[in-house]
Amino acid sequence: MRGWLPLFTFIGALIALLMVGRLLAGYFGIELTLDSVHDFRDWIDSIGWWGPLAYVVLVVIRLFLGLSTHVVLTLGGVAFGLTEAIIWGGVGLTLSGVVQYGLGYYLGSDWVTRRLGDKNERLQRILSRSGVPALFLITVHPLGPQSPMTIVAGAVQFPFARFVMTMMLASPIRASIYAVLGGAVLEFDLWLIAQITLGCVVLMILPFLHRKTRRLLLGMDT
Question: Which residue ranges make up each domain of the chain?
Answer without folding.
Answer: 30-217
